[in-house]
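Repro case for the chain-ordering regression, as requested:
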Amino acid sequence: MMPDNWGYVAAAYALALVMFGGYWRRLRTRERQLRTPPSRRRGR
Amino acid sequence: MATASRVLGWLAALGLAGGLAMGFGVAPRETTQGFVQRIMYLHVPTAWVAYLAFGVVFVASIVYLARRTDAADRVAHASAEVGVVFTGLTIAAGSIWGKPTWGTWWTWDARLTSVAVLFVMYLGYLLLRGMIEEPERGARYAAVLGIIAALDVPLVHFSVYWWRTLHQPPSVMKPGAPTMPPVILATLLVNVVAFTLLYLYFVTKRVELLRREQEARLA
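-- result from build under test --
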C-alpha cells in the first residue's frame, strides 16, 4: 500500500480553487467594466 | 439570462460542496493508492467536461459555418475558453496525481501527449480569435479550427486502447459495466454533475459578456 500523500491531494484541489476562482474573478471584472459607461472607462 | 446564470452558479456551488463532501467524507480510502486516489474526483470530471466543452465547440462551429449566426459563434468562443480552463486543470491535476503513483510528473505517452495537443490547439484557437481584427473573418477561421481541433477528442479517448500507455484505460466510459465499487462511482458521478453545472455557469456568463462586448463595439 502507498503512503497517503495528502500533500498532493491538497495541491491538486488548491490549484483547482485558484484556476476556477481566477477565471470567475476575470469574468466578474469584465462584467463590471462593461457595466461602466464608455466615457467613464476612458477616463480611468 | 442573468437569473439563469445566477441559478446555475448556486447549483454549481451546491454540487461542488456535495462532491467535496462525498469525495472526502463518504468515499472510502482506496486500498492500493490510499488518500491520493481522491484526486480522481477532480481529474476525471474535469476531463469529461473538457470533452463536452470541445464537443459543443464542434457543433456550434458547424452551425455558425452553415447559418452565420452570431449566437452560435459566441457559444463556440465561450465553450472553447472554458474548455481550455478545464483541460489545463485536467493536465495539472493528472500530473500531480502521476508523481506519487507513476513516479513522474509527465511522460510523453499517447494519452498525455494527445491531451497536450488538444490544449495547445484550443489555446491557438483563442489566440487566433484575438489576432484577427475583422470579427466575421475571425469567427469563420476560428470555426474551421474549432472543428479540426475537436477531432482530437476521440483520439484522446481511444489513445489508451490504440497505443501502449502509462495512463490506465477508462473505468467508466467503456463497453460493459464500470469497474469500480458503487460508492466510488456515485461520488464520481456527483462530481461530474457538479463540474458540468460549473461549466454551464461559466459558459452562460461568458456568452452574455461576449454579446455585450459586441454591442459595445457596434455602439
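Ordering looks correct now. The two ends of chain B are 21 Å apart (CA to CA).
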